[in-house]
Amino acid sequence: MKYFNNRYGWLFLLLIATMFSACEKGLKPVVFSSFSSSTFFQSASDASAAVTAMYTGMVGGTTTYEAGWSGSNNGWVIQSSMETDETICSWGWAGWQRMNQLQFSTDDGVIIGIYSQLMPIISQITIDMDRIAGITMNDALKKQYIGELQALRAHYSQILFNLYGPVPIRLDPKIAADANAAPIPRPSHDEMVGYIESDYKAAAAILPASFSGSDYGRFSSTACLTGLMKLYMKERRYQDAVTVGEEIKSRGLKLTTNYADNFSYANKGGNSEIILAVPCNASASLGYNNWLSDVLPPSPLYVDPSGMNLQAWGGYKMPWTTYDKFDPSDKRLSVLLRSYPVDENGTLFDAKTGGTINGVYYAPFIGAIPKKYGPDPGSTGANSGTDIVVWRYADVELLLAEAINEVNGGPNAEAYSLVQDVRSRAGLSPLAAGLTKTQFKGKLMDERLFELWCEGQRREDMIRWGTFVQYAASMGSPFANDNDTLYPLPIKVITETKGVVKQNAGY
């Protein structure tokens, strides 16, 4: 599904104009248009456009560029990376250091912005599900659309749950549509888990195992199961994670031969490994990939082998202490750069030591270049059409191995096989036999870094392992404390609900 193409352009804009009438009460919704259910939600094409509009949450919503699963400071991918051992930044904005040090505050628009973006979308999804149910249309397609919306509601709720803890989502469509409805308190931890679990399971029972062609990028039942597995891992419900992981494993997914192909423009439309992606368009106002421009150094410090003159701002880097954990023979280093040619003659520049290019000395970089994504051959600016990867089967394999290790009190042959499938592609030898539960988990923790760097998984991994706050403290943060596993809610939510919605501890 091409989220932001011209096919639904005008319908998308009209939907967005009304979407914020469904905000969580504390966000003071504003209605921008009189476009309503009396003129919309009358046909199958209306339902299709409504579902398409809700996918905007995958890139942060309607007002924040490059957020969500994309690469800006407004989204959860780069925040996940900056708050862990994955990335630091060369740019001067003080917010980067605040992320590195887990220095969160209620007036930090970047940190609280994800809440403000996703809460109204979740409410609108609840409203849309109810309205689509009343449309006369093909029943199978109606069920699919409602299933997709349930999956998206689960996914966005899961992101908020991971970042803020339980949040007061509205599951009654009439109340969600009422801008004057009384505020509701935050649910309990178990209630929030139940909401997400129920939505994923209901959607998984309806949706097909995968989507392809023009429907590529829609939430499938396999994507629902992946989200569910991640929820179980967060909750340390390891046996449930094993059960779901084995179901995903039975669906015929397999790793691509070449790691970098997952992030190549030539891979648009997916492959046997990608479970969920955001289809991107370089010319769209939303839904483009800006990763390369954020990470590549400007010429002459980087010249792309393709010969393309790429936009380059040179911000994000992987700390050398993290980069140095990789085996030098690891094939995944092909897109995580230390030394690389800077001209057609093959002249090498070593980013760790610095060096001379055309008689000019350049100082060492603060870290390696996390290139990850390949260029879009049709793009002439900073925006790329290379699809953004959300979830891959390699992630599932490593999670399943971790869950098996926890359930069994140590690794079995299947757990070793799952990890080796990932390591073999990277050109690495098998893990040593006879590892204890603790030793195997340590290897898995490293392997998830080596495989999934800068894909938005690291923060939740480290929180699950109990190393998130510990790492920031070890790097000298004076702010790191146990409350930092959750962000603060926007202060206006607390004040405008007159304290019905309670703030997280420590803020």
Layout of helices and strands, plus pairs?
Elements: H1 9-19, H2 44-54, H3 76-82, E1 88-89, H4 94-100, H5 109-133, H6 139-164, H7 173-176, H8 189-204, H9 221-234, H10 238-249, E2 274-278, H11 291-295, E3 316-319, H12 320-323, E4 339-341, E5 348-350, E6 355-357, E7 360-362, E8 367-368, E9 388-392, H13 393-408, H14 413-425, H15 437-452, H16 458-465, H17 468-474, H18 491-496
Antiparallel strand pairs: 1-3, 2-9, 3-8, 4-5, 6-7
Helix pairs in contact: 1-2, 2-5, 2-6, 5-6, 6-8, 8-9, 9-10, 10-13, 13-14, 13-15, 15-16
Can you describe this structure?
The longest helix has 26 residues, at 139-164. Among the domains are: 6-84 and 104-207 and 489-496, Serine Threonine Protein Phosphatase 5, Tetratricopeptide repeat, CATH 1.25.40; 390-478, Alpha Horseshoe (Serine Threonine Protein Phosphatase 5, Tetratricopeptide repeat), CATH 1.25.40.900. Strands 1-3-8 form a 3-stranded antiparallel β-sheet. It has 18 helices and 9 strands. With 507 residues, it is mostly helical. The chain has helices spanning 9-19, 44-54, 76-82, 94-100, 109-133, 139-164, 173-176, 189-204, 221-234, 238-249, 291-295, 320-323, 393-408, 413-425, 437-452, 458-465, 468-474, 491-496, and strands at residues 88-89, 274-278, 316-319, 339-341, 348-350, 355-357, 360-362, 367-368, 388-392. Helix content is 41%, strand content 6%.
